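Retro notes
What went well: the complex prediction finally ran end to end.
Inputs used:
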Amino acid sequence: MARLECPRDAYGRALLEAATQDSRIVALDADLSGSTMSRYVKENFPDRFFEMGIAEQNMVSVAAGLSLTGKIPFAHSFSVFIVGRAYDQIRQSIAVPKLNVKLVGSSYGLSDFGDGATHQSVEDVAIMRAVPNMTVIVPVDAVEVRQAVKAILEYHGPVYLRISRSPMPVITDCRDEFVIGKPRLVSEGKDIVVYANGLMVSAALKAKEMLEEQGVSLRVINVSSIKPLDAEAVRQLAHGVKGIITAEEHSIIGGLGCAISDIIGEALPLRRVGIADRFGQSASSHGELLEHYGLTPESIVEQAQELLG
Amino acid sequence: MQNRDLVYLQEKAKAIRLGILEAIGVNNKGHLGGSMSAADIVAALYFYKMNHSPNRRQDPDRDRFIFSKGHSALAQYAALAECGYFDKKELANTKKLGAILQGHPERDYTPGVECNTGSLGQGLSIGLGMALGGRLDGKNYKVYVILGDGELAEGQVWEAVTAASFYKADNLVAIIDHNKLQATGPIKKCFDTGNIGAKFSAFGWKTFEIDGHDMKSIVDILDEVDEVKGVPCAIIAHTVKGKGVSFAEGVPSFHNGELTAEQFEQAKLQISNM
């Protein structure tokens, strides 16, 4: 069993480290710095932290203005609020002029399990994917969070970075290079390829173990970079398999499943594991919700068995 | 640029108004009303108050101008052309495919445009970001944002007004082009945004009211706000929508209207004789 590490804490520390090295970095938050972990910047560089109050739209446009003075703003809130509440500001103030603003959506998917549908994001990736000029990254674990923070800093342009609230198993080898746009092979296999991201990569690895007893071999790919996405690499990683499964903590509409389907077309049968066009709800744990919505290794096993007839 | 000669500035305002006409042309829809109402303020900013030059567009010390009511960009385009940011001939290509002058301001297309506006309510927030960035860098530049009075219905404006007050952004100046008309009619009847000055004051801003077509009042107030420390300033400029074109003044249909060839010539003549 892989060790667990908290990605939002890793994110906050990675941002602090980056801010220590690069004085252009500034952080903005809408009264959630204790949860998004932008608080580390707030505590260490109070001049470069901007509390914007519970006003996400203004925060996002202020970030645009800061970037126009050469700063590299990281604007934070929960995924559901930064994408939903400030959509037009993201589109008009940042994406159209391709400004160098990093939007950090924390507590994505069902990970804010207790707070219910209003605080859980099932459609944020679909929305951000559809915006021209936007890069969308969903790190798989704390190691990849650290790599992604570095990578998006080197990239000049708007980025949506999706960070989970839950501890996640560490599966990334820190020696492997993270490249925006490149899917990462996590585990080799020959029968079915699973393109997954976030916690669903671990679920796919678990499914792989479960299927091994039946002589079925899964190839597991971590698609942390949903947009851009290297189409040729995706096609190559599907080479030789009999079917494809996508797995994500997001609606089956518009997210990773669609991104892969856009590339693969009808070349191979494709099944999606995701949230079936529903909102979230409250529960006593993230795991309970993942199970309720079918975001489990068992769902992946089931889809694999159906694909192999 | 600091030329306080009022006649010179009035001539520049006239050149801007003629540029607006040039950009609209004949039998084309164009935002005449709100561009004309802001023309004198824009002239005072570009030809008197702001530290800027087409030869140092990236100068980190330059003053910034944002037309939050982006549909009135024609006034800014005309001013930028008059300043030499691009050839005046470009005005006639406004809104054509491939033109450097888009329907609403876009910084990637137009030299001298600082940021994108058009979706109303965002410019003051962007301006605040520029003001906070400038302060962080120890710069003394100012950020001037022109908002429409109808635009004040956007909730984000008041988020920005609150935040600017909280951050004591005395390098941010909001100028309200109070022409009393929104797209569908008089603001008082359509959607009354109330006592604008009282609202800004209540949010902690230093507030001024002027005649937005009186050049002396405009330049005086732009100098006066420099003396205000510790709070942001709002200038409520009382203006007439369509100012300078008699048949368009105060007429809602010229928010985004067309000019016949005859109207175009009439407008040109009236402005030339202003």
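What we learned: Chain B has one domain: 6-272.
What to try next: split runs per interface for comparison.
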